Amino acid sequence: MSDGGSGLKHRSELQVRWGDQDAYQHVNNVAYAAYLQEARAEMLDAAGVRAKASARQGTFVVARLKVEYLRQLTFRPAPIAVTTWVSAMSPARITLRCEIAEPVDDGLGPYCRGLTVLVPYDLENDYPRRVSEAEKAALTHFLVPDPQ
Amino acid sequence: MSDGGSGLKHRSELQVRWGDQDAYQHVNNVAYAAYLQEARAEMLDAAGVRAKASARQGTFVVARLKVEYLRQLTFRPAPIAVTTWVSAMSPARITLRCEIAEPVDDGLGPYCRGLTVLVPYDLENDYPRRVSEAEKAALTHFLVPDPQ
Amino acid sequence: MSDGGSGLKHRSELQVRWGDQDAYQHVNNVAYAAYLQEARAEMLDAAGVRAKASARQGTFVVARLKVEYLRQLTFRPAPIAVTTWVSAMSPARITLRCEIAEPVDDGLGPYCRGLTVLVPYDLENDYPRRVSEAEKAALTHFLVPDPQ
Amino acid sequence: MSDGGSGLKHRSELQVRWGDQDAYQHVNNVAYAAYLQEARAEMLDAAGVRAKASARQGTFVVARLKVEYLRQLTFRPAPIAVTTWVSAMSPARITLRCEIAEPVDDGLGPYCRGLTVLVPYDLENDYPRRVSEAEKAALTHFLVPDPQ
Q1: Does D145 fall in a domain?
Q2: Which chain A positions have a beta carbon within 8 Å of C18's beta carbon?
Q3: Longest dimension (CA), chain A
């Protein structure tokens, strides 16, 4: 594609934990943010750019998070499907979009839509860094730019 | 005030837990969402509108969450100060704004700014409800409308 | 078997979450307790005795928990295998044993061994109850009594 | 004291989070394990032996955890009081005991009693280490040996 986008989105299947429920007996809003994080870690892994746990360099930190809650999610044995993709990239920011839905489309639309802005960050020196060429190439694999 | 705002913001002091840290050895982005939730529960309590845990009516659910991460937060014995206020209210939506900062201003600005949209929701009948007159009056106590 | 044991243990495969790690960059000890809980919920489901989320009767509460940590667990894409079984049953107590290990035996032994004592409890009336005949029959399905 | 015990126990006041509740609308059993961890971190800090977050040496890992749940804990604004002390020490193991109760004694006894065995561990080299003389001296401050 001329814009460098692959058109390919990353898909994770994540388990809902009984403990993700709150006193309202549905999945707590904070757990959705955890699901986005898990799916993001899987996507970065799949792209080959996630630093290992003990790394202090080559890491990304979250600069912004947006979650739109569209349907209540209740505990169930079946996993949820989380789709994650890169919607924009600049040397200092990577914007991810995300959708949580049923693994098999039930026609009721997604449970939530999310947006996460990652900033490449060098934890060792506590300083923002730039997206490397290798990271840019790797992340292009899951780049699906927002429609203009 | 002519717009019904009190000018008063609610302030919580929340403990940072060792377990809120992630493998990057700072407070995980998801924990900030948990802090917003705790501060919100305290503000709703202070306003007298939080339903008790077992209630299935008179409750609110989260429809939207936005978090801007401005500074990294690391584990420390001192609490963080979370300021929460109502920035807009309509019969079907309550918009809260939130700021996490040092309890004593250190001149470095807040750790994060958040926005939460609550929807009044009847869990018993699984249906959105309206903000009651009593809730509206109570929440006006912490209403600080966004500047135009 | 003469003691009513089936010899059958329940097996769950659980995802390790990136967020289960702590600042020591391994899975936090508290997360193991969460894994035991998830596996237990699955076993109670499989036996047909887990009350639904909104139930206030027919529930069990945890009276005792023991976890022996044998090997460190680090974040990885592969699930862990959690084996859960009933090791003892009386009208007022159900004792579960649990083991967390690799899904395919790596010869290094389990990551942890756990024991959970459940007490049948009526949350509605806030009072301990007795294991019903139906529950007893169902749980016998996963009964593997401790060797004498 | 002839046994080297100080008779002094460490006391933390910990906030109960709304999010510590589960679908049974009481504090989840896993959250008690988190409370024990937070109180332990505070005690190790107070004794001056807790390694900083980024340390890979001089750390302790949990080898065993036991929790007895005695009373249900429900969400409330008031903190809980967690008392933690060293009940036994050897070069390779530190045994901690713990009690969760009301900050002001209500005559109903503790919510829970816990026991945690810590093993001094060098995360850098992934190998058990020995309790240092300095650690031993520091931890003696909170040593209250079990009655014989």
Answers
A1: no
A2: 37-38, 41
A3: 49
